[in-house]
Backbone:
């Protein structure tokens, strides 16, 4: 019943049946996918929950017990879906692109295309899911008062209440990758100004949550509780999910972090401006490890010279205009030299481009940053620590 968010590689990507699961529908353009593992998780829930239904409603048949257990598995999936839609819609409202939403083994995942820029955004998106779950759980709990007790309908309503309340409460536990962990990270980030410090604190919380789940499962076995096998199955899977998710968050933070003492000027290559109609062979020879901005006669930049495309073009048509081998300069491939290092690393990681134009505060070209140069510097920085 875990539900969380993950940062994807980029917002524009075609979704196919083999890319994350079965496409169910789209919400505000965001694909909602059902992963194959969801069926496995639901089967586990049905097998473990059916005997408990038989004890709660001793007068019902075995078939009815299995049907009610299957209904619980579906309601759990719908609860996770509602939870994730809460994250998704708030993220979109804040201008944060969402790549896709997936339902998988006992959980859900909203893959946002970029990291929230401020702790307030992180907190709002994280809180949206549990709020939706708790509201739905509370509504179903009130609905139970209007339904005759001890019947199949009452149990279905109770299942819906339990499913939503369980999803909401569990995800408020203070450890990554759960929403409670993201709230912890947002809080520490807001107080200290350091997102990395918030991540480390919330990852430690994730270890505590995973340990607590295993202890609770073992306690159920020791006390022979009626739901001990259901509890054991759910706790083991979710503890495994929390541990893997926390490790992934820590790794992602390491990729995002900017080494102390590293200046952007150390990584930026000098920039050379050439007419867009220059022969591609001449532009390639003039680059000599520098970034080349190709400018049209009207003063508008045609793009950055793509060395690989230029080499291919020069091999067959050396006198062709260099503009034919230009990589367009888009808003997302322009970096401000005054931007914080962490934001530059995040922008480069999220944007599908191999070189970026760096400009000063007045918009004048200050150099070109290549993805390979930044990656090498970040790897050196991590090894130095």
Residues:
């Amino acid at each position: 019943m875990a539900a969380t968010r993950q940062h994807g590689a980029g917002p524009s990507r075609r979704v196919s049946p083999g890319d994350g699961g079965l496409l169910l529908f789209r919400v505000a353009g965001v694909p909602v996918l059902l992963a194959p593992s969801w069926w496995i998780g639901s089967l586990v829930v049905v097998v473990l929950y059916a005997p408990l239904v038989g004890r709660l409603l001793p007068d019902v048949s075995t078939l009815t017990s299995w049907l009610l257990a299957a209904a619980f598995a579906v309601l759990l999936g719908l609860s996770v879906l509602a939870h994730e839609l809460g994250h998704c819609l708030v993220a979109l409202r804040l201008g944060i692109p969402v790549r896709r939403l997936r339902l998988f083994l006992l959980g859900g995942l909203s893959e946002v295309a970029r990291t929230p820029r401020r702790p307030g955004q992180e907190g709002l998106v994280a809180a949206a899911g549990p709020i939706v779950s708790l509201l739905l759980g509370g509504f179903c709990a009130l609905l139970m008062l209007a339904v005759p007790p001890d019947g199949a309908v009452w149990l279905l309503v109770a299942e819906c209440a339990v499913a939503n309340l369980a999803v909401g409460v569990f995800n408020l536990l203070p450890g990554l990758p759960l929403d409670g962990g993201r709230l912890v990270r947002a809080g520490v980030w807001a107080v200290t100004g350091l997102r990395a410090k918030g991540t480390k604190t919330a990852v430690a919380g994730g270890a505590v949550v995973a340990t607590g789940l295993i202890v609770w499962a073992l306690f159920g076995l020791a006390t022979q509780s009626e739901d001990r096998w259901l509890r054991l199955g759910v706790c083991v899977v979710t503890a495994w999910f929390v541990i893997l998710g926390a490790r992934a968050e820590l790794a992602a933070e390491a990729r995002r972090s900017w080494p102390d003492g590293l200046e952007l000027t150390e990584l930026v290559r000098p920039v050379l401006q050439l007419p867009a109609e220059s022969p591609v062979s001449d532009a390639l020879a003039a680059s000599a490890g520098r970034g080349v901005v190709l400018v049209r006669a009207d003063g508008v930049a045609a793009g950055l010279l793509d060395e690989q495309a230029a080499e291919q073009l020069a091999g067959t048509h050396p006198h062709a205009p260099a503009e034919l081998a230009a990589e367009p300069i888009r808003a997302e491939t322009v970096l401000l030299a005054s931007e914080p290092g962490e934001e530059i690393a995040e922008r480069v990681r999220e944007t599908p481009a191999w070189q970026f134009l760096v400009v000063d505060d007045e918009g004048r070209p200050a150099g070109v940053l290549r993805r390979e140069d930044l990656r090498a510097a970040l790897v050196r920085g991590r090894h130095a620590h």
In short: The first strand starts at residue 2 and ends at 7. The mean pLDDT is 86.
